[in-house]
Design brief:
By secondary structure, the chain is of the alpha+beta class. The strands form 3 sheets. It has a 4-stranded antiparallel beta sheet. A 4-stranded antiparallel beta sheet has the order 2-7-4-5. Helices cover about 45% and strands about 25% of the residues.
């Protein structure tokens, strides 16, 4: 894990021994909102998704967390209940470090403390951008931005990007705070415009530069 880069072997062994290790099948809860347990989780393999459900029942997705990353550090820092539900997206191996152990690690390893601070700064920046995006852009514009993010994450080659498998419409809706029907309509419109193409179970963004131009125009860039 990048968080532990440069730590002595003795410290790594201490972390591994202090952690409780679990193998969690895909689609299972790892932690639930409002739980009082305050440890931090490290993902040794697999990936998870942090979500919350509104009173209306609509799912809001905050972020996906993959191998080599962590979650639960907010509750581990302030001792308050969990703020989101976390569910595995794939079969995963997670290591749980209790809150007392996490605080010892931060106190005794300045490099880890700095990395945690930088991680939290990054989260604040991401959430700030998301608030602006949700407050000032339309649903189609938010879909464009999410597709561009996924395209860049998947890798762009010759101005194309292949999302394999194609993201479920419900997942896209949860990411950008809308409903599945609106996502389906906009993806169909983008397909008619030639910006998207289906390829089996994959979805191909056929002109990443043009999509980026739509996103920049919406943001006043």
């Amino acid at each position: 894990m990048p968080l532990f880069d440069g730590l002595a072997d003795e410290r790594l062994a201490w972390i591994a021994e202090r952690c409780t290790w679990r193998t969690v099948p895909a689609g299972r809860h790892v932690v639930s909102r409002h739980e009082d347990e305050g440890g931090v989780y490290f993902i040794a393999a697999g990936s998870v998704r942090a979500t919350m459900y509104a009173v209306s029942g609509r799912q809001v997705t905050f972020r996906d967390v993959g191998e080599g990353e962590l979650f639960g550090d907010l509750a581990a820092l302030d001792g308050r209940p969990r703020s989101v539900d976390v569910t595995t997206l794939a079969d995963s191996v997670v290591a749980h470090l209790d809150r007392a152990g996490f605080l010892i690690l931060l106190d005794e390893e300045p490099a880890v403390s700095r990395r945690i601070m930088l991680r939290l700064v990054g989260l604040v920046r991401q959430l700030s951008e998301r608030v602006i995006e949700l407050s000032t852009t339309s649903v189609p514009q938010r879909i464009h931005a999410e597709l561009l993010r996924l395209a860049r994450e998947a890798g762009v080659s010759a101005n194309e990007a292949t999302l394999d498998p194609a993201p479920p419409h419900a997942d896209l809706a949860a990411q950008i705070s809308t409903n599945r029907e609106q996502v389906t309509r906009e993806l169909s419109a983008l397909t008619r415009q030639g910006l998207l193409r289906k390829a089996g179970k994959a979805l191909v963004v056929t002109d990443v530069e043009r999509l980026a131009g739509l996103v920049d125009a919406a943001r006043g860039g």
